[in-house]
Design a protein that fits this description.
Layout lengths: L3 E4 L5 E3 L5 H14 L1 H7 L2 H12 L8 H10 L16 H5 L5 H4 L8 E3 L4 E7 L15 H5 L2 H6 L4 E7 L6 E3 L4 E9 L8 H6 L9 E7 L10 E7 L6 E4 L17 E2 L4 E6 L3 E7 L4 E3 L1 H7 L7 H6 L6 E3 L4 E5 L7
């Protein structure tokens, strides 16, 4: 079955080339059902790292032609990158490329803007059962996903957004809001694929993957003033590591997440070592509103999304770029 998404801005519909789609479909159907021990081994940390090495670290060859072929297939514009084209001698270097984001991913200077953390396919959701965006325990179990009870209670009834990074995407994550880190922790887990076929085959798959949770207090001096915001980075198949690497300018010097660190909106926060993966943002009730065009795209009935077939109603992703505005602080938000 084709999986489609909406291209932001133009509203045009595109077919997604799902990498290793037949393999993933086979793994999450016959292998999972008939050889569960093999399936568990495949989604383990050891196997994910090994697959990542085989696919991303072996040299492309003495000639650049191997790299050029991969770049063309993925539609990557090396002109956006910090390094010169000759630097990209392995698939890993291509997938972990750094871009001139101030130039090629401009950001709205409106302080009320909340921005996308990644080049990705995005959809919005709500934990409030009275919202048209409400969806319960499909992509994740909220309580299990965040792990710590204090944050589960703080974000109950709020809104969330999921950003699915495909292998061709730029794999740095950027900060969606400005504020101070008040908590950071990592949760161990597996490395399930983020391919839509895998997602709809598993029950709350994101809750079982390895993930890093950053809680940001934006109600501080210089902050975005939209309450507490949680950013969760979720590892997936062939992602060996989530590297926390916040940088105030460019990409260096980079520093890890820690309590008390002030994060500026739009700056690099972390890097996936590489493959497919996703980010999830959580917002407290009434503190923000998603961009109307993104919400409208999500309910389009003319788009062939696998998520729509699974949920029994339109549920469509929009292709967004890192630092693009995805919502704004609510007009009723008073900063506390």
């Amino acid at each position: 079955m084709t999986h489609q998404y909406v291209l932001n801005g133009s509203g045009s519909v595109r077919d997604e080339e799902l990498f290793c789609d037949r393999v993933i479909g086979y793994l999450y159907s016959r292998v999972r059902e008939q050889a569960p021990a093999v399936f568990r081994a495949v989604v383990s940390a050891r196997t994910s790292s090994l697959l990542g090495f085989v696919n991303y670290d072996l040299p492309l060859g003495a000639r650049l032609s191997g790299g050029e072929s991969l770049v063309r297939r993925l539609g990557i514009d090396l002109g956006e990158c910090v390094e010169e084209p000759g630097y990209y001698t392995t698939p890993r270097r291509i997938f972990e490329r750094r871009i001139r984001y101030d130039d090629v991913r401009p950001m709205d200077d409106d302080p009320a803007a909340i921005v996308s953390p990644a080049d990705s396919r995005m959809f919005a959701g709500s934990l409030n059962d009275g919202s048209v965006l409400f969806i319960k325990d499909k992509f994740f179990s909220f309580e299990e996903f965040l792990g710590r009870r204090q944050w589960v209670e703080a974000f109950a009834g709020g809104d969330f957004a999921v950003f699915r990074l495909t292998p061709d995407k730029y794999h740095y994550n950027h900060v969606p809001v400005s504020g101070v880190v008040c908590d950071f922790y990592e949760i161990e887990g597996d490395f399930h694929s983020c391919n839509p076929s895998a997602v709809i085959s598993e029950v709350t798959p994101f809750s079982r993957n390895r993930r890093a949770v950053t809680v940001i207090d934006t109600d501080v001096a210089g902050g975005s003033m939209c309450g507490m915001v949680v950013m969760v980075e979720v590892a997936a198949l062939m992602i060996g590591q989530i590297v926390q690497a916040y940088a105030v300018e460019g990409y260096e010097p980079a520093e890890p997440m820690r309590q008390g660190l002030f994060l500026s909106k739009g700056r690099p926060k972390s890097l996936y070592r590489p493959g497919s993966s996703l980010d999830v943002l959580f917002f407290q009730p009434g503190r923000m509103a998603f961009s109307p065009d993104l919400v409208a795209n999500q309910f389009r009935g003319d788009v062939g999304s696998r998520f729509s077939s699974w949920l029994g109603r339109p549920w469509v992703e929009t292709d967004v770029r890192v630092r693009q505005t995805i919502g704004r602080i609510s007009a009723t938000s008073n900063g506390k």
